[in-house]
Structure prediction request, 143 residues.
Amino acid sequence: IAHGLPAGFARRVARNAQLIMAEESHVDHVADPAGGSGAVEALTNDLCAVAWQEFQRIEAEGGVLASLQQGYIQNRVQTAAAKRNAEYRTGARAIVGTTLFRAGSERPVETLAAERRPALTEGVATCEPLFPVRIDQSIGAGA
Prediction:
């Protein structure tokens, strides 16, 4: 909706992508496609290790609120995004169909006009703002 409603070709591609994947990989005939996959398990372990390091880094910076207030988390996200974008531009990283195996002649994306409507508010709950102090600091249990 941000760009408009998808045109017929986009709807057809979205509809048929899952059918093509099922037909070519036969994933629809397997009870657990990722079961026993050493590659998936290794990626999961690597992701968990890196996530734990990030949690420890945030804790060492004084917790998530302090880290956000000082801009540490934002800087790491921006640095990672810039590095990833540079890798896409140089070809060190690829996205199949976007940066790799592009069609010889791309046609412009076609969208249909969409009526702009205000965001839904019915059934939406908002949270109260958090206190800008860690719980252990507020009760004197820190250090």
